[in-house]
Amino acid sequence: xxxxxxxxxxxxxxxxxxxxxxxxxxxxxxxxxxxxxxxxxxxxxxxxxxxxxxxxxxxxxxxxxxxxxxxxxxxxxxxxxxxxxxxxxxxxxxxxxxxxxxxxxxxxx
Amino acid sequence: xxxxxxxxxxxxxxxxxxxxxxxxxxxxxxxxxxxxxxxxxxxxxxxxxxxxxxxxxxxxxxxxxxxxxxxxxxxxxxxxxxxxxxxxxxxxxxxxxxxxxxxxxxxxxxxxxx
Lengths: 109, 114
Description:
The complex is a heterodimer of chains A (about 110) and B (about 110).
Chain A: E1 3-5, E2 9-13, E3 18-25, E4 32-37, E5 44-49, E6 53-57, E7 60-65, E8 70-75, E9 84-91, E10 97-99, E11 103-108
Parallel strand pairs in A: 2-11
Antiparallel strand pairs in A: 1-3, 3-8, 4-5, 4-9, 6-7, 7-8, 9-10, 9-11
Chain B: E1 4-7, E2 10-13, E3 19-25, E4 31-37, E5 44-49, E6 56-57, E7 64-66, E8 76-78, E9 87-94, E10 104-105, E11 109-113
Parallel strand pairs in B: 2-11
Antiparallel strand pairs in B: 1-3, 3-8, 4-5, 4-9, 5-6, 7-8, 9-10, 9-11
């Protein structure tokens, strides 16, 4: 079966750094996505990785290792507005997105 | 508008009733999707359409139907609602089948079936 695993909840302090991990087992691989979803709102696109390595975009970075079926999202200089759920999703061989249940990130002052 | 519009925002529906959730996009994206999101579960694909005139079944299609008469509109119909269809429904679109530019989501419809 296809499976995406990520922690249910994480807590971090404003101004700090947090790493949200995602492991996956899917039928084929055509890229990995990270989305941010604030409570009661729609998911918004953060990043896309299809090759191994680190993609940096401002305070957010995303890393992929295809051989390990592993990705992480790194958030630096945390702000209160970063409190949200972060969704990991993998595109399988049929170009369908398989979604993790999301990681709820709580930022404390 | 610029993006995806879903209607209604929320609805309370009696079990057994028929309901259509509306979704319209103005980005001329080829691919469109319907997801449901339930607490503790990931987004689950109900139906999708890679281009106008074609549709396909996702992970949880039973009890739902869709149509794609044109590029912009992708309505989702519940023929006879049941309480297990209580959920938040998101419509999404992408500019290609591969969705490498990411999906754009509508603001969602919160549906309660009683």
